[in-house]
Design goal:
The protein is an alpha+beta fold and about 190 residues long. Helices cover about 55% and strands about 15% of the residues. The strands form two sheets. It has a three-stranded antiparallel sheet with strand order 1-3-2. A three-stranded antiparallel sheet has the order 4-6-5. Strand 2 and strand 3 form a beta hairpin. The model has no long low-confidence stretch (mean pLDDT about 90).
Length: about 190
């Protein structure tokens, strides 16, 4: 392992969260492209050596984390893994935020048709969603977006990798929503 690899490994291990490529390049005093090549070599080496850790890319930043294959032994050690169960309500709210971000709680509630404060608060608590700013209108409502933890949890590198619904699915969802609305109107 050369000095640059050792520095990258130490930084990523110590930080515990993703570090932007540019910051790593600054520390190494080399170009971002050279830094990315070193990280690719390290990733290949970790894989070849069947190590328990890996380096993943998250939206232009890099993080050292445990390989999924190592989760079972970790669970045995921890005895009680901290895995939050996402209910249908939380998944529905999370999907709205993921696809519409940045989005206000009012916009989420308009789409869902019910109060969503509790769901949004739970998603913030689970670190899947965070406040990303305020809308520049009277009252300055909070804007919400997804976090790096969301990306890690759902196995995507960026929001652009989220699956896009097919036009037929969108039409089917629209018909289901209209039918549900008609039933509610009759009651």
């Amino acid at each position: 392992m050369d000095q640059n690899e050792a520095i990258i490994e130490a930084v990523l291990f110590t930080m515990g969260e993703s570090v932007p490529l540019e910051k790593l390049a600054d520390v190494l005093e080399i170009t971002p492209e050279e830094t990315k090549n070193i990280i690719r070599q390290m990733t290949a080496s970790y894989e070849k050596e069947n190590r328990g850790i890996q380096i993943i890319e998250l939206d232009g930043a890099f993080q050292m984390c445990t390989k999924k294959e190592m989760y079972e032994p970790l669970i045995k050690i921890a005895r009680q893994p901290k895995k939050q169960a996402l209910t249908d309500v939380l998944l529905e709210t999370l999907s709205i935020i993921a696809y519409k971000q940045p989005v206000t709680r009012m916009e989420i509630e308009k789409i869902r048709g019910v109060s969503s404060g509790h769901a949004v608060n739970k998603l913030v608590e689970y670190n899947l969603v965070c406040e990303v700013g305020r809308l520049d209108v009277p009252g300055r409502p909070l804007l919400f977006g997804t976090t790096e933890e969301f990306l890690r949890s759902f196995g995507v590198n960026s929001i652009e990798e989220l699956p896009q619904p097919q036009p037929e699915q969108v039409e089917e969802f629209r018909h289901e929503a209209e039918a549900e609305l008609e039933i509610k109107m009759k009651v």
